[in-house]
Amino acid sequence: MIKCWFDYSTVIITGASSGLGKGVAKRLVLEHNCRVIGIARSEDKLKQLQAELGEKAYLFSYRTFDVSQREKWDELADELKNEDIQIDLLINNAGILPRFDKFYNYTVEDFDKAMQINFYSSVYSMKALMDNVLCSSRAGIVNVASSAALCSLAGTGAYSASKAALKSFTDAVREEHRGDCYVGLICPKTDIFRSQKKSDSTSQKMMDAVSTDCDKMVDLIINGIWKKKEDMVFGVDAHLMSVGNKALGTLCSNISSKVMKISGLEIFKDVFAK
Q1: Residue in 118, 147, 160 with CA at minimum distance from that of residue 235
Q2: Computed over its alpha carbons, how large is the radius of gyration of the chain?
Q3: What angle do CA 74, 174, 82 make, to 5 degrees?
Q4: Of 100, 96, 148, 152, whose CA–CA distance to 270 is shortest?
């Protein structure tokens, strides 16, 4: 008996080779018996994920390409059509986090790359696969944005803009297809400290206190999709940014940026340099 609406479904997930994408892909296969097509650039990492699935590895296949290349999505759409593969759920999870820096230190190419991967890749995938997904009786599309789409921070001009664009785009598509397709948006905490060395400093401990580990985040994401939640804000920092932005407006960005500055973390050095 099917216990969840996406049990035994066919799912495409981008950014499946690591992090949240990998965690969600594994959970869909191991616990929900989904047939998952993972998309990422690293074949070695995708093969490793497949190996970790053990006896259910046959449920996982992959394609290696850059999600920001529109023609690759058109090619995948043709392949699925030719092989008569019905997609039930599309999860756009791939993304990049540019370095923290002042706007004028970014190149136009830096902005282009962030917009292409964080925003346009979802536009391309949905444009290419929408007809396929909508043929499913349990059609679903989930886009993964970021807490940065809820409240912009100093040094995140390219990232915040790309994720805010994805949020607005998803909100519009949801209304256009309400009743035809479940459209969800996930704004998880952003692991902005992944390249920051751990320390015993009070500031680092404070930053760690508001973070949510990957396994817990995967639990929240799977549960949110299960319940067909439309807007999902996960993680202490994401909730603070969401509530703060609604209550305080631009003051929330100002306060958050001041906290970043006084933290003294190396990752923010260029943002506040004179």
Answers
A1: 147
A2: 19
A3: 25
A4: 100
pLDDT in tens, 194-220: 444 444 454 444 444 445 578 999 999
Q: Is 204 exposed, middle or buried (0-12, 13-18, 19+ CB in 10 A)?
A: middle
* Identity of residue 147: S
Q: How far is CA 264 from CA 19, 241, 259, 270, in A?
A: 27, 20, 9, 11
3-state helix, strand, coil in the chain (%, to 5): 55, 15, 30
The rounded distance, in Å, linking the Cα atoms of 119 and 41 is 17
Question: What is the pTM (predicted TM-score) of this model?
Answer: 0.88
Distance between CA atoms of 260 and 153, rounded to whole angstroms? 9
As given in the structure block, the two tokens for residue 88 are: 């039930």
Question: Which two structure tokens, joined as six digits, stand for 218?
Answer: 């995967």
In terms of phi and psi (left: phi > 0; alpha: psi -120 to 50; beta: otherwise), the region of 197 is beta
Using an 8 Å Cβ cutoff, are 207 and 15 in contact? no
